[in-house]
Amino acid sequence: MKRSFNRYVCGSLVIALMVAGISCQKSWLEPETPSLFVPENTMVNEQGFKAALASCANNIRPEWYQDGAPIITENIFSEMAIEGTTDKFGPAVNMNLLITPDANLNSGDFNRIGWYWDQAWVGIRLANTIISRLPDADFNQSAKDVIKGKAFFYRAYNYYRLVNQFGDIPTSFREIKEPKLDFTTVKRDVILQRLKTELDSAALVVPWVQDKGDVNKGAVYHLLAKVCLSLGLFDEAITATSAVINNGSYRLMQNRFGTESSDARKNVIWDLHRPLNKSIAANSEALFLVTDRFGDQNAVVNGTTSMRQAVPFFSVNTILTPDGKVGMTPNFGVEFDMCTLYGRGIGRCRATPYSTTDIWDDPKDLRHDTLSGNWMTMEQLVYNNPALKGNNVWYGKRLQKFGPTGSLLVSSGDTIRTWYDWPHYKLYIPDQIRTPWQGGNSDWYVYRLAETYLIRAEAYWWKGDAANAAVDVNAVRMRAKCSPYTAAQVDLGTILDERGRELYYEEARKTELTRMAFIFAKTGKSYKGKTYNAANFHTSNFWYDRLMDKNYFYQKNVKNVRGDAYTISPYHALWPIPRTSILANPNGQINQNLGYSGSETNKPALDKIPD
User: Fold this and answer.
1) Is residue 564 part of a domain?
2) Does this model's pTM top 0.90?
3) Range of the domain at 57
4) Segment-wise mean pLDDT, segments of 10 residues, the chain, 611 residues
5) Is residue 558 part of a domain?
6) What distance in Å separates the CA atoms of residue 92 and residue 184, rounded to the nearest whole number?
7) Has residue 120 been placed in a domain?
8) Number of structural domains in the chain
9) Which end of the chain has fewer CB within 10 Å, C or N?
């Protein structure tokens, strides 16, 4: 990867504050103390604007990083995962009780709904400032056009997430230079139409292939297609995705490549997710990613922690041998060092049976292959407690879930947190920071060509063209060595299954499910014989029905070892607007989503964006 873009990244957190005028730790409406490092002093030349764009990129990076990464919240509001923390009250298990406008909505220990709200507004204000100040800058107009197109992308990226997480929201499409206390909620479709117009413009000027941590035309078209789907413009979504798929610069990776390509035990799926392979020139599948390199000044302090978040808590002393002895140890450097081989997980992002078992319909699927080590089951681990060595026959033998009499070999009974399968190839990031390993620094995919194919497949399906939808789903399936589907086998559920197989812990799953729920309400198309409408979205929607159909824990109101039941409701398809933001806007009207307290004072959302 070229370094021309990264050299602007090192000071991006500081620049984010001086450009946006707010910190992600503060309310998005709260003004900052004036600083010498203000846009008037920094955004005066092309380099300054590129640094501001780097801040936009840096602003979206934390979604996949640090302890309690926000992407977990996207997953637990879907059919793919649940909150696996079982040792305290507060994590998002009983959504009906805990997800409220007044709750703690920004904690790695609870949920990160508030992070998404705060962080998106920082990104929007960054982009607004760039766009507003570009006309007065003194450098080449063609360079200005490219910068503006990239800023349009970042603004659209953040708004797209907000309208599919929170629905109708307040807006700001211009730089705000003084405190503003009169925001008003705007209709979701009005915002999406504005995003489409700006992304159409960006697609004309942003170059095709650049550094993969920078915005390129492929990323713009990819996001444009999602916006078009949201608006029900299926033909335009097909046109946008086809522009990427048919461009010779991007191809699905089919052959071995990169740092471990000589390891005959592995395959292209493994290569695709190696940290050092994600951004190299040989990787023609990466459209857009966020960068994180160990040793760089701008590296994330704690890295991805991907293994800590999503791998089972197998190192706990409650896992027993069949003869009742403590079987596992979390210690580093033991003879059978499971925590280095697979990571010292705590099971916070607990995959569901749907994502670990139900969606895997082809034994040849490389993504679910245990022989190559891409996929891991608990039974592939071995009892590694050094106290067993020399005096217990089970030392070094594979784990068993049940004993000879059928008794559970987990003394706490907590199989939610300690016993499930996981995609090792996706989560395994060697740790340069700490032992036992939790997941070190690594670039992470934001948009990848495999998803572009699945977006186009979805657009074809909405149009009723199952044949072409099958072609695109099969492009992704066959790369993983699966047998192709027939057109008769392909529906939205099939496409969602393929997204789950391919994009786990990459895609914003809740965002995409809610987007689809809005399309069902807009088109009147049925899901398993049921139709929807916008008027009662908070009581009946596809998002909720999909979860109840596929997520066993919410479907059965399963209780964890604390006795907390997994519950969720239709209105959770849209997250609550944090009450602090509503209260900080006394001269305007920020609506609360229906189903949450405070929505009784709502007023009709605006059908135009305020000037």
Assistant:
1) no
2) yes
3) 1-64+112-206
4) 35 31 36 49 89 96 98 98 96 98 97 98 97 96 98 98 98 93 98 98 94 95 98 98 96 97 98 97 97 94 97 96 97 94 97 98 98 98 98 98 97 97 98 94 98 99 98 98 98 98 98 98 95 97 98 98 98 98 97 98 97 77
5) no
6) 29
7) yes
8) 1
9) C
